[in-house]
Write a structure and sequence with these properties.
The structure holds two protein chains of two kinds. Chain A is mainly β. Chain A contains no helices and 32 strands. Chain B is globular and about 55 Å long. The chains are: A mainly beta, B alpha/beta.
């Protein structure tokens, strides 16, 4: 999760701030969302990569630390120890914030209000992306080292099962369908995507989370994926293609012609592909919007607009898929996953 | 077929070649031995006195002593042999007593995790006639971890007498030797006074996860880097472990860096290794651990020897941590980190088993 929970976003749009973790300079850079004016920076610790908001706090995952950093509404900066190196991705469930500790074998559970570590949940080694089922009762964590998707009961903070994604799998992206009945995981090493049953509604028998139900080959070096109500999209970074499947992973289309596709977004009624190898957004229907530089990570802002982090060019832009670049600004080194506050 | 006789030049050349060849063969057969004695140093011949001298320990180094110390204190010190029974029977320091090694690695399980079984360890020392106030010298084939485990075990039971390790091992000793069956020893009733500050438990560590080598204690993983890094497919990974990697924040310094052949590594090098390269604070608490409770005692003794003030052993080791039952979120391991300090050490001595920790 690299976005807002909505609770910290009471200001008018004109007041909104784009907060961008810049891993090269250990800063959270702040921009006026509508103008791109640089508003300042907050030192947040080593290698900040993703940010989120929760209970009015902006929380930053600092991969080079055994801690995450929270900024409260008064501007106070708090370091919350995770105990394990490599905080990477966030997910909120049951009023708590989960963060994957990607250099270890645990998820840290943080109380976003008290700004304390509540617990750690043991999961497969090197967890990366985490996804929460509708209702928040279960959380799914992909292990890059053990090739499993761990199932966590967010009430008890316990791992209650694990789905084996296959021999030698390196699980990167994890997603849950909007109705919560189906989970998906990307095996980066095997260039495949797998689908599994989640075990029904979030309050059901957790142990019934099923084995891999079906799998499909995708383009080389996949990383993230997007699951919608009826589609699954998997960019293959190495081949410059995006696979489109139905919810059972039956192939719908293979979209070609990208350089290094990294993510898929819905904006203004179309699906747009962020390309880390080309200075543009391109829709699956072929529409193109030029951007100031290639983008590695983007955050949906509102209908039709994306905040794009040009990681290798030390630049951040607000891009409207209909009218083009709204603004572009220099940033500290290596801007990454931003959040609108 | 006829052969022409060689001319004078060819004959002279052949004679010279033959002479050269004969010289080599004579040398190989030892024909020049009469002159070798005066050039022994040039030929690399080392006498027992040389070996003893090489293993003397000077400067401000604790625990380790050279053979001259043993020679001077032979009648006053209890000498313990840390090697196995076969090697002990073959040759040993005269009147040395063999340590029942398995017993002095005993652990007992507590709510906080495994700790040294000080009753069992004390009984083992009692069986070989050690009293709490004896000055003890331990030796093995080298200064490997089998020797240092004995030193740790004595410390763990609160030994009151001095605890010393013979630098260079048995090969450094050029005094009287014994052989054959062990001498008869009257057992003692060794009453332990457990020195719990010499070790830490699993729970002690779990309470401090996230602080090691930062705001909290120093933490050293003494295993090979492949085990520390959980290198996929490596033979160094212990099949008995549920998980691989290391405790969060630990720095890896393979324990064999403490040993150069049969003796301790140069103390100056050790100070640089641990204080400069591993960035450990000699005035703070430092915890050492390995897969078991033997190898890390090499680092335990070494750090104390070079002046670290508070060194403790995690006796349960990574084996306990990796396989802990229940809530493993409290006992995380890290894999994707790389705080490895390269070492250059090697452990000498007679080691048929191939396990350095068993060389003594």
């Amino acid at each position: 999760m690299t976005g807002s929970d909505g609770q910290g976003d009471a200001s008018s749009p004109a007041d909104r701030v784009l907060a961008v973790p810049c891993e090269g300079d250990d800063l959270l850079a702040l921009f006026a969302l509508d103008t791109g004016d640089r508003l300042g920076e907050v030192p947040v610790g080593s290698h900040p990569v993703h940010a989120t908001t929760c209970r009015g706090r902006t929380v930053v995952a600092t991969m080079g630390e055994r801690a995450v950093t929270a900024v409260d509404p008064s501007g106070g900066v708090t370091r919350i120890e995770t105990g394990v190196l490599g905080p990477s991705h966030f997910a909120a469930a049951n009023g708590e914030l989960y963060v994957s500790c990607s250099a270890g074998d645990a998820l840290a559970v943080v109380d976003p209000e008290a700004l304390t570590l509540v617990d750690r949940v043991a999961v497969g080694a090197e967890p990366h992306e985490i996804a929460v089922a509708p209702g928040g009762g279960r959380l799914y964590s992909g292990s890059r080292r053990e090739g499993v998707v761990d199932v966590v009961d967010t009430e008890s903070h316990e791992r209650i099962g694990a789905i084996d994604a296959g021999p030698d799998a390196r699980v990167q992206g994890v997603a849950i369908s909007p109705n919560g009945d189906r989970g998906y995981a990307v095996d980066q090493r095997g260039a495949r995507v797998v689908a599994f049953e989640t075990g029904g509604d979030a309050e059901g028998d957790a142990a019934s989370a099923g084995p891999v139900r079906v799998e499909a080959a995708v383009g080389a070096d996949p990383y993230d994926l997007v699951a919608t109500g009826d589609r699954v999209f998997v960019p293959g970074r190495g081949d410059g293609i995006v696979h489109e499947f139905d919810r059972d992973l039956e192939p719908i289309a293979v979209h070609e012609g990208f350089s290094r596709p990294v993510d898929v977004f819905e904006a203004a009624g179309e699906r747009w592909v962020l390309d880390a190898g080309a200075a543009r957004l391109r829709s699956l229907d072929g529409a193109v919007v030029e951007t100031p530089a290639p983008g590695l990570v983007a955050t949906p802002v509102d209908d039709g607009r994306l905040a794009v982090s040009h990681h290798d060019d030390d630049r951040v832009s607000l891009v409207d898929v209909e009218s083009g670049t709204v603004w572009s600004a220099d940033s500290p080194a290596y801007p990454f996953g931003s959040v609108v506050v | 077929m006829t052969r022409e006789p060689p001319n004078d030049d060819e004959s002279a050349t052949r004679d010279a070649e033959n002479a050269t060849r004969r010289g080599l063969l004579r040398a190989a057969a030892g024909a020049t031995v009469a002159g070798a004695a005066s050039t022994a140093g040039c030929l690399g011949v080392t006498t027992p006195a040389d070996v003893a001298a090489q293993n003397e320990v000077s400067g401000n180094v604790g625990h380790f002593v050279g053979p001259s110390w043993l020679a001077d204190n032979r009648e006053d010190a209890v000498v313990l042999d840390a090697r196995d029974a076969e090697r002990f029977r073959e040759e040993r320091v005269y009147r040395a007593r063999r340590v029942p090694f398995d017993a002095i690695t005993s652990r007992e399980s507590t709510d906080d995790g495994d700790v040294p079984d000080t009753d069992a360890i004390a009984d083992a020392f009692g069986e070989i006639g050690v009293s709490p106030d004896d000055d003890v010298l331990v030796y093995g084939a080298s200064v490997g971890s089998r020797v240092t485990r004995v030193a740790f075990a004595l410390a763990a039971v609160g030994h009151e007498g001095s605890i010393r390790v013979l630098n260079g091992g048995l090969s450094a000793w050029n005094g009287r030797l014994g052989t054959g069956s062990r001498d008869r020893i009257s057992p003692t009733d060794y009453e332990p006074d457990p020195a719990s500050s010499a070790w830490v438990t699993r729970e002690w560590l779990a309470d401090r996860v996230g602080t090691f080598n930062g705001d909290g204690p120093g933490l050293v993983d003494v295993r090979v880097p492949e085990a520390y890094l959980a290198a996929a497919g490596s033979d160094a990974l212990n099949d008995d472990h549920d998980r691989h990697g290391h405790l969060p924040g630990a720095v890896d310094v393979h324990w064999v860096g403490n040993v150069a052949g049969r003796r301790m590594t140069d103390p100056g090098r050790l100070v640089r290794l641990y204080e400069v390269e591993a960035e450990l604070d000699r005035s703070g608490t430092v915890v050492v651990y390995g897969d078991d409770n033997v190898d890390p005692t090499s680092t335990w003794v070494t750090l104390k020897a070079i002046g670290f003030e508070d060194v403790r052993l995690y006796d349960g080791g990574f084996g306990e941590w990796a396989n802990v039952e229940g809530d493993r979120g409290r006992y995380p391991v890290e894999t994707a980190t790389n705080a490895v300090v390269p070492t250059e050490g090697s452990v000498g001595g007679d080691d048929g088993g191939g396990d350095f920790s068993c060389t003594g």
